[in-house]
């Protein structure tokens, strides 16, 4: 496709299909804009006219609560027009192909597609059939770049810097698209990442992600960590269980009240959601003083406003009231 360049000089990208496309400077640009949009989200009237006349299509062909809800709110708070084309109400259930779906929606002069799909690479395929900007909102076990950006924003707000920060990521690393985006981004920004999982939940070459350490022992790793990032077991991506029972998994890798004394007093607990309470995280820890899980959800709106604004070429740095 003959794709028009983004005229925004501070963020020279057309799409966001993988976190690998962003330099450390690009990531910090998004986080700094998210900070500006956070102020908008604290106002009584949470809306700016920044992207009036732009149209965004949300194409969610896999379930989502957080990502879909926060993208929709972000678009509306930027004054975009929106169309939701995924799910059981779309003609994909009548057999219309993905490419025909994109061509149809593209003919309506959409400026941006937000794409979630169970198959890795779908947002890239979409980008090959439209001149509109495309954001990957989670594809298979490949990438979830906006989740990584909102996690980074939350960590940055709580910890002030990434340099030398010790981050442990615990659980189902191999099936996690969150890891595929978050680990390389943290490494790029100077954090020291430890992957904590049984061998059956690790990729064949975990070092490719950019982690500094790999261990199977959560209790040994916990005392050193500034950020404890818990992952859900991706049951929907498993052909057979990689552990004897959920009870055994919880005993070895669950973040429980009993493990709280092992943590630094100022350590934070992150989770991308949805949580399987009583498996990777007990309710005491999910809702306790270390948890920043609801902060992550709020960050999702701020970061997605920033990214849509930057990709659709927000004319200048001013976010007018
Ligand atoms: N974290 C995340 O992607 O959640 P949803 O599946 O609810 O969007």
Q: Can I get a quick summary?
A:
The chain has 321 residues and is α/β, with parallel strands linked by helices. It is built from 10 helices and 9 strands. The two termini are 36 Å apart.
Descriptive overview:
By secondary structure, the protein is an alpha/beta fold. The chain has two domains: 19-143 and 298-318, Rossmann fold (3-Layer(aba) Sandwich), CATH 3.40.50; 145-296, Aspartate/ornithine carbamoyltransferase (Rossmann fold, 3-Layer(aba) Sandwich). The protein is 33% helix and 13% strand. The chain has ten helices and nine strands. It has helices spanning 24-41, 66-77, 98-106, 122-127, 145-159, 177-188, 218-221, 246-253, 283-286, 293-311, and strands at 55-60, 81-84, 112-117, 133-139, 166-170, 192-196, 213-215, 227-230, 268-270. Strands 7-6-5-8-9 form a five-stranded parallel beta sheet, with helices on one face. A four-stranded parallel beta sheet has the order 2-1-3-4. The longest helix is centred in the C-terminal third of the chain and has 19 residues, at 293-311. It is globular, with a radius of gyration of 20 Å. The model has no long low-confidence stretch (mean pLDDT 93). The chain binds phosphoric acid mono(formamide)ester. Phosphoric acid mono(formamide)ester is lined by residues 64-68, 138, 147, 272-274.
């Amino acid at each position: 496709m003959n794709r028009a360049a983004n005229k925004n000089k501070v963020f020279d990208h057309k799409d966001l299909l993988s976190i690998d496309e962003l330099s450390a400077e690009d990531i910090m640009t998004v986080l700094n804009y998210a900070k500006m949009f956070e102020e908008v989200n604290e106002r009584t009237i949470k809306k700016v006219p920044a992207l009036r006349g732009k149209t965004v299509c949300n194409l969610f062909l896999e379930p989502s609560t957080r990502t879909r809800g926060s993208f929709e709110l972000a678009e509306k708070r930027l004054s975009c027009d929106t169309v939701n084309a995924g799910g059981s109400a779309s003609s994909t259930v009548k057999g219309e192909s993905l490419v025909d779906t994109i061509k149809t929606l593209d003919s309506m002069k959409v400026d941006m597609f937000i794409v979630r799909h169970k198959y890795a690479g779908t947002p890239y395929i979409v980008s090959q059939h439209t001149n509109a900007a495309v954001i990957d909102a989670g594809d298979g076990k490949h990438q979830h770049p906006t989740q990584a950006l909102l996690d980074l924003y939350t960590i940055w707000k709580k910890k002030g810097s990434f340099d030398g920060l010790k981050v442990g990521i615990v659980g189902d690393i191999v099936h996690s698209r969150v890891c595929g985006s978050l680990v390389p981004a943290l490494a790029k920004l100077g954090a020291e990442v430890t992957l904590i999982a049984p061998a059956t939940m690790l990729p064949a070459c975990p070092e490719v992600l950019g982690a500094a350490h790999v261990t199977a022992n959560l209790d040994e790793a916990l005392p050193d960590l500034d950020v404890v990032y818990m992952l859900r077991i991706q049951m929907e991506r498993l052909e057979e269980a990689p552990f004897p029972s959920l009870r055994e998994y919880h005993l070895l890798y669950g973040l429980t009240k009993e493990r709280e004394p092992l943590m630094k007093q100022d350590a934070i607990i992150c989770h991308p959601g949805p949580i399987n309470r009583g498996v990777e995280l007990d309710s005491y820890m999910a809702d306790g003083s270390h948890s920043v899980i609801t902060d992550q959800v709020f960050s999702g709106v701020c970061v997605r406003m920033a990214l849509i604004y930057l990709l659709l070429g927000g004319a200048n740095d001013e976010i007018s009231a």
